[in-house]
Amino acid sequence: MKTAFIFPGQGTQAVGMGRDFTARHPAVFGPLFEEANDILGFDLKKLCFQGPIEELTDTSVAQSAIYTVSVGVHRLLMQEGFKPDIVAGLSLGQFAAIAASGAMTFQDGLNIVKRRGKLMSEVKRLGEMVAVITLNEETMDHVKEIVAARGGNIGVDNSPTQVVLSGEAETMRALFEELGTITGVKPRMLRVSQAFHSELMAEMEDELMDYVAQFPLQRPDTPIILNCEASVEYTLQAILDDIRGQCTKTVQWRKTVDKLAELGVDTLVEVGASRTLVGLMKAWPQHKWTLCTTDSTSNYMRTVKTLKTQAGVLKG
Predict the structure, then answer these.
(1) Choosing from 60, 70, 197, 198, which is the catalytic residue?
(2) Which fold has domain 3-123+199-311?
(3) The CATH fold of domain 127-189
(4) Where is the active site (predicted)?
(5) N or C: which end of the chain has fewer CB within 10 A?
(6) Active site residue 121
């Protein structure tokens, strides 16, 4: 049996995230939120628990919230004695995966996430993003041909039937209109003012990496599949290269899932206040994974039971 811990990205924030976990596991989540509040300079716990959603959705807040809750749930799983064979995270989720790999501390990761979100929001070249879902893989291949022909860019390749386009506003709007006329294609404009994972973000790369260089990141003790190449990595340099590359390059989540299957992973645990990544797995019906979520305390307990049963701790 091989288990992967996978960590969700931006867009999975919701009012109430982390609240039940804090009530049930105050020894873990209490100090974690206190540390986060000190680093961020605002009350992250209050925004997570009470909102409003408009403030929680702000890039700098949402990224910090998702990262913090994911790390907290990972700490609980580690206390239960569960260590994954491999980790991966989608976009922002990669930072929680890096922390879970042992390559950086929670505090250093949150500082980096905070600065990354700030730099993203300050990028001067504004753009837009379009989520595209297709009826089948063949239709998605056609969509990708159109995007390439129009000079568009795929920011996130989520699955065989789902991508997110990212780039200049005029190009994105034109693609949105054109793709909307094709049978079996559902495009949707996202409510963002930045074109994440596109060349429009290039201006933030150097400043981000100068900031990252201040922190003592180290070689991971758990292998990690990184976003840009979907390759299994064990070195610090590969992680640093991917943090930079993630600014402008496509997040290869589809290839990441293919790599997990190739490696023989049979259990996927989505770690954090989300079940988005597990939901994507229906696009790979040929793989019979055991899928686990931790988006609620009840689902967390089911996941713990499943992992203990697989480990032979529980029977039946």
Answers:
(1) 197
(2) Malonyl-Coenzyme A Acyl Carrier Protein; domain 2 (3.40.366)
(3) Alpha-Beta Plaits (3.30.70)
(4) 91, 197
(5) C
(6) no
